[in-house]
Amino acid sequence: MVLLPLRCVFWGSLLTAVHPEYTACREKQYPVNNQCCDLCPPGQKLVSDCTQTISTECTRCKEGEFLGTWNSERHCHQHKYCDPNLGLRVQREGTSETDTTCTCHEGLHCTSEACESCTVHSLCPPGLGVKQIATEVSDTVCDPCPVGFFSNVSSALEKCHPWTSCETKGLMEIQEGTNKTDAVCGPPPRMRALVVIPITMGILLAVLLVSACVRKVAKEPENKVMWMEHRKDPVEDMEESPVPPHSIAPVQETLHGCQPVTQEDGKESRISVQERV
């Protein structure tokens, strides 16, 4: 029983002699060769470790590179590239201490927290309204329309709209709305009759006027044809029935005061005694 504790002490002493105790370093230091060296500040990378006589050597990151923490890195990280083919654009340019921040173009949002690619905002279908509009880093949040509200479009912006209040417009509700359709309003029975009767009378009057116009237009060509035929008949009769030559009364000539005088045939030519003298 006494030998077991002695063996433990022996092996512990041996291991301590072979492996010296680990040296604990302060914050912003790192262990190298049983000593603590200072870490390089953000924006700089490690060139060489410290020694007993020389401190840690660091150098600033090149343009397009960065290191954002206290480090012992020998290489800086490249700035992120915002690929426009993936819908990305630069939100904030990177520095030697910070990385480039990418975001999405309008109408798109990031597919992950790292925002390495973008996708189109989701649309809320009919029956669902937009509860939260999508941002550059989050998608659209949809919510079912409650009773009394509706949405009849697919949209990434439209919320649910309340049903139309027929009573406030002096109308009556003909059909109740749903989550996809609005309520349908109409005139009360009396008002409906007052509206239907004038419309019906107007339609009948229009039909009568159109019928009268059609009859008038159809009758005008017939009247015109009859008038032309009536006007043409006398001319044709005159042309077809020439006056016979014997119908013209013969004319005789007599002398009156040494001047010829014409008389119709069949009448006596009388010359007074005075004229003969």
From TrEMBL:
Query: What highest taxon heads this organism's lineage?
Result: Eukaryota
Domain TNFR-Cys: residue ranges: 24-58, 60-102, 103-142, 144-185
Task: Enumerate the residue ranges of region (Disordered).
Answer: 257-277
- Renumbered to this chain, the Basic and acidic residues biased-composition regions fall at 264-277
Coiled-coil annotation: which residues? none
Localization per Swiss-Prot or TrEMBL: Membrane
Q: Does the keyword field hold Membrane?
A: yes
Q: Which GO terms describe its molecular function?
A: signaling receptor activity; ubiquitin protein ligase binding
Residue ranges crossing the lipid bilayer per the database entry: 193-214
Q: Which GO terms describe its biological process?
A: B cell mediated immunity; B cell proliferation; CD40 signaling pathway; cell surface receptor signaling pathway via JAK-STAT; cellular response to mechanical stimulus; defense response to protozoan; defense response to virus; immune response-regulating cell surface receptor signaling pathway
Query: Which cysteines bridge via disulfide bonds?
Result: C37-C50, C40-C58, C61-C76, C124-C142, C145-C160
Does this UniProt record's set of keywords contain Nucleotide-binding? Answer: no
The record's section on SMART domains has: TNFR
- Which regions are annotated as TNFR-Cys repeats? 24-58, 60-102, 103-142, 144-185
Q: Name one GO cellular component term.
A: CD40 receptor complex
Give membrane topology per the record.
Answer: Single-pass type I membrane protein
Which Pfam family is an annotated match for this chain, by its short name?
TNFR_c6
- List, alphabetically, the Gene3D superfamilies matched: Tumor Necrosis Factor Receptor, subunit A, domain 2
Give the residue range of the signal peptide.
1-20
Keywords assigned by UniProt? Disulfide bond, Glycoprotein, Immunity, Membrane, Receptor, Repeat, Signal, Transmembrane, Transmembrane helix
Assembly information from the UniProt record: Monomer and homodimer. Interacts with TRAF1, TRAF2, TRAF3, TRAF5 and TRAF6. Interacts with TRAF6 and MAP3K8; the interaction is required for ERK activation.
Describe its function.
Answer: Receptor for TNFSF5/CD40LG. Transduces TRAF6- and MAP3K8-mediated signals that activate ERK in macrophages and B cells, leading to induction of immunoglobulin secretion.
**This chain belongs to which protein, by name?**
Tumor necrosis factor receptor superfamily member 5
Organism encoding this protein: Mustela putorius furo (European domestic ferret)
Ranked from the top, the taxonomy reads: Eukaryota, Metazoa, Chordata, Craniata, Vertebrata
